[in-house]
Each structure stands twice: as structure tokens, then as C-alpha cells.
Design goal:
- With 277 residues, the protein is mainly α.
- It has a domain of 191 residues: Methane Monooxygenase Hydroxylase, Chain G, domain 1 (Up-down Bundle).
- It is 59% helix and 0% strand.
- The longest helix is centred in the last third of the chain and has 32 residues.
Length: 277
């Protein structure tokens, strides 16, 4: 706590910023803090907007880190990917905590401003879609919500045309001499679980000291998916707590749709290998 009457300039603090960059200038806070525009008089609409805007900022950082991790693995530098993946895991820990704040909103409070959302929905998040595509959950049908924005759709198509994070991990396994089977013809298509890949990861786990960077990479991927699954589950429980089994504003079946998403596994062989070890 600052002492009463303390003048920070006596300790060297800068306090004049007429011609210099300030904290708010560097962070462009005028734009960020001025980007909340509730469409109703409901008290809790600001909570809803801030929750989703801050989540999108965290997703932006997660994309940045996932892209760097994918590049590092492709360049045979898996050890460089570990920091990026560890950071993404911590980002999703933050995103999980954010649901606790949103859950302080009751169904009656949400009902006050829900009509203001129109057909907008988190289902339409471009950055969330990009993360799914980058890590390997590839479904070209999910391009449709972004068809009204050619710039966003083209960005997603570019991601689908490139190897995913998991594709690069499997390519690395192949370069290290493990039999991982043929790569699918179209990178944009979903992967099928491969027994060859399960066997390859089993070899890595059976002798971690000889394959330490691959072993560590596998665990970093599992860490990420662990927190990603928790985030999806927390999303589900928050939606059920606030709207029950109503349809989502974007037209999805709401809770039922989110329950289906819980069954999506990003790195299936890394989970299956645990059964056979």
C-alpha cells in the first residue's frame, strides 16, 4: 500500500506523458476499454461481453503459441515446442477459471438481455475454430459459419491445407524411425485412429530415456488436451446452469451439442496407448 502523502517522483517514477508513450498508449487501452457496447439496460450484459472478449484475447495468444509450437516441431526442434505448449495449457487454465465468473450470472439475469444477442454465438468464434483446426480436429463443414467473411474463411482454409500440430508430431515420429503408417491424402480431412501410431507411441513410452524429447512432447500434448477438455466441460456445465436445455442463440441444440463435443478426442493414440502399457 502506498504511504499517505508519498510522491512517486521522489523515487524516480515518471508522471508526465504529454509527449511520451504511457501504459495506456502502449496497450491501446482506449480501444480495448471502449469496445464494450451493451445493447440492453441489463446489469449483467457487461459481464457477458467482458467474459467473451477476454476469452478471445486469451485465444489469440493460444493461437500464437500453437503456431510457434507446430513450426518448432516441423523444424526438428521439439524442445522449443515444450515452452509454447506449456504456455497454452496455462492459458486454458485461465479460460477455465473465467467460467467461474460467468456462472455468477443467474438464468433470470441472462434472460434480461439474451434477445440482444440475436443469432450470435460462441459457436461462431473464428479463433476457436482456428485452434481446433490447428491442433487436428478438422471438419471442413465448420467453415460454413465464416462464409460471410471471405478473409476469415480463407484463413481457416489455409490452416486446413497445412499439417496440424499433431500431424507434425507424427511426422517427427516418422523421421525418428518409428512406423506411423501413411499420411492421409488430404490434410483437411479428419484423421482416423491408427494402430501403427498407437504402437509407435507405445515404443516411446516403453523407453522414455532413449526417446526423451518425444516422450516429453507426448506428455505436453496430453496436458493441453486435458485442460482443453476441462474447458469444454466447464462450458457445458455453465450453459446448462444458465439456460438449461434451451437451444443456443446460434441455432445449435445447446447442451446436447456441447455434450457431443466432449466426445471429440484430439490426440486419440496418446490416450489409447495408456491402456496397453
Amino acid at each position: 500500500m502506498t504511504q499517505p502523502g508519498f510522491d512517486p517522483t521522489t523515487d524516480g517514477a515518471e508522471t508526465t506523458f504529454r509527449d511520451r508513450m504511457s501504459y495506456g498508449d502502449y496497450l491501446a487501452l482506449d480501444g480495448i476499454l471502449g469496445a464494450q457496447h451493451p445493447l440492453s439496460e441489463a446489469h449483467d450484459e457487461l459481464l457477458f461481453i467482458v467474459q467473451h472478449q477476454t476469452s478471445e484475447l486469451w485465444l489469440k495468444l493460444a493461437l500464437h503459441e500453437l503456431q510457434a509450437a507446430t513450426k518448432a516441431i516441423a523444424e526438428d526442434r521439439p524442445h522449443m515446442a515444450f515452452k509454447h505448449l506449456a504456455r497454452v495449457t496455462r492459458i486454458f487454465e485461465q479460460l477455465n477459471g473465467a467460467w467461474d465468473v460467468l456462472r455468477t450470472m443467474t438464468p433470470s439475469e441472462y434472460t434480461e438481455f439474451r434477445p440482444s444477442l440475436g443469432q450470435s454465438s460462441g459457436f461462431q468464434s473464428y479463433q476457436y475454430r482456428a485452434i481446433e483446426f490447428i491442433v487436428g480436429n478438422r471438419n471442413p463443414a465448420m467453415l460454413k459459419p465464416h462464409g460471410h467473411r471471405p478473409d476469415l474463411e480463407n484463413g481457416l482454409r489455409a490452416i486446413l491445407a497445412a499439417p496440424s500440430l499433431y500431424d507434425e508430431a507424427l511426422r517427427l515420429l516418422g523421421r525418428r524411425g518409428f512406423a506411423v503408417g501413411p499420411e492421409r491424402a488430404e490434410l483437411s480431412d479428419p484423421r482416423s485412429t491408427s494402430e501403427a501410431v498407437v504402437a509407435a507411441w507405445a515404443c516411446v513410452y516403453a523407453n522414455p530415456e532413449a526417446n526423451w524429447d518425444l516422450y516429453e512432447l507426448a506428455e505436453k500434448l496430453v496436458d493441453f488436451e486435458d485442460y482443453f477438455r476441462r474447458w469444454r466441460f466447464n462450458h457445458l456445465t455453465t450453459v446448462e446452469r444458465v439456460i438449461g436445455f434451451k437451444r443456443g442463440t446460434g441455432g445449435t441444440s445447446g447442451v446436447a451439442y456441447l455434450q457431443r463435443m466432449l466426445g471429440v478426442v484430439l490426440f486419440p493414440e496418446l490416450w489409447e496407448v495408456r491402456t496397453i502399457l
